[in-house]
Amino acid sequence: MLRRMRAALALFVMLFxxxxxxxxxxxxxxxxxxxxxxxxxxxxxxxxSLKESSYDKSSNQxxxxxxxxxxxxxxxxxxxxxxxxxxxxxxxxxxPLKTRQISKEISTAKLLEFYKDGGDxxxxxxxxxxVEPVRLFLNELGIYPSPKNAVLKNFNxxxxxxxxxxxxxxxxxxxxxxxxxxxxxxxDGSSALLDNGEYIVEILRAPxxxxxxxxNSKEEDWSVGSQxxxxxxxxxLTNARTTWVGSSSFFDDEHYSANGxxxxxxxxxxxxxxxxxRSVGATxxxxxxxxxxxxxYKIKDEVVYEIGLSIWDGKKWAPxxxxxxxxxxxxxxxxxRLTLSPGRVTEDTQYYTTGTFKLPDHHGMFTFLTEYKxxxxxxxxxxxxxxxxxxxxxxxxxxxxxxxxxxxxxxIGSVIISFILFVVFFIASSKNIPVDSVxxxx
Amino acid sequence: xxxxxxxxxxxxxxxxxxxxxxxxTAYSSYLKNVKSNNQLLLIDSFLAFLVVLxxxxxxxxxxxxxxxxxxxxxSGFIMCVGQFVLLxxxxxxxxxxxxxxxxxxxxxxxxIASLLLHFIGIHFVN
Lengths: 442, 126
What we know:
By secondary structure, chain A is an alpha+beta fold. Helices cover 23% and strands 32% of the residues of chain A. Chain A has helices at 2-22, 44-52, 108-116, 132-141, 253-270, 406-441, and strands spanning 26-34, 63-71, 82-83, 86-87, 91-94, 120-124, 143-145, 151-154, 164-167, 184-187, 192-194, 200-205, 210-213, 223-224, 229-235, 241-245, 277-286, 302-312, 317-319, 326-331, 333-339, 341-345, 350-358, 364-372, 380-388.
């Protein structure tokens, strides 16, 4: 009962979160920028696309609200992410900042808290604008942007020119950009080194002939060749996403004709508008159709497991198709790891099924688990722990049902029959002897 | 026999002959014993039958290389062994009765013990 209530509560919370994230009335975005570095006039196309492409006016009533806040400009009351512990924004965009701090309210810890609460963050830095709290925040995630004034250059160019034409072949995550269109991106900025953590999403690698260094100092090169990354993401276990881009000019109107298509996909990914999948729930029952509640599982029962997955296509939930969804039946170790095959499809859900399989010959508390974690896609975890009981003592087959044992049964039978015959003969023969002996005595 | 012994130059051969001679003596004395007592003959043939039965079951397990209904095998095999032991103890008492226990009482005890053995065996085979 308690478990069911808890499951219902979890479902409710999940639904609430999904509704909150995707089909709420409005999506609030805070843009923090520094007037000394960034002139918003140069980014009209980017913000326009952010407002327009993120939702479809005809089918979705969602409103995309963008709030701008400049540091060092008396916008201090705007520069906060929480009011009375309520999260004010869904998304946060930080442009390069030259200041020492963002504001009193927004520290590294506050950024982390915002991120943990499910806020998506797009952090744009540039060689001249990398503010300390943002750098520390990114370092926490395992993204290490190059220090101030280090610029991505071509290794055999001595001049200050640092513009790069980057082929879309350097884009490494198909869930962020699927690579259908051939693009030549124009990039001018810094690079970052990445941790090898599991939740890092590599998005755009630095070209092989590039090097990131500070020309004015004798520091070591920050990154060499494709070791560096120009755009990187991080997706937490709560499916919140952080995206880092090492160039602000990447977004401006001048380069928008080259970068626009990529930027639109990138911002959709960054703000959880694409590559978002969800599970509509996993079910399992006997192959006969009886549920666990009706007939608890026992060892070697035939069981079917099914999970439904949907993907958000920007307007509605659609069936999600993949061929690498796996199911595990675990008791400490996985006893089964089955690749699920696509089953029935509904309007918005693709169901995956194991087909019938036999529970192992081992009783205990087993977990029916699907963990679908792919870099770039939101994570799906469905787990359900159930008891698998052993056979009751009247559920084993009788010995005469097993042909092998007929040999032993025959042996037992013949021992008993020959015992009876023996007793009969023994008594028959012993009757003579006493008579004889009596006669002899007489 | 005597001729063979005299011609045998080998010590081994003479030992073998001695052994077979003693075996022959034992066998003939056994035959004499049994002939005088039909009950002993009956017991011994039953004993031989039990040995054959037990060996057959064991060979079956070895040949099919699977002891799957192990309880059935155990019960079949132990039934043979148990019946063998009970019969041997009955035979001992028939030849030389224990003090204070008559042959009739020994036979009665044998029957009760055997019935108990069969009961347990049948239940164990399930």
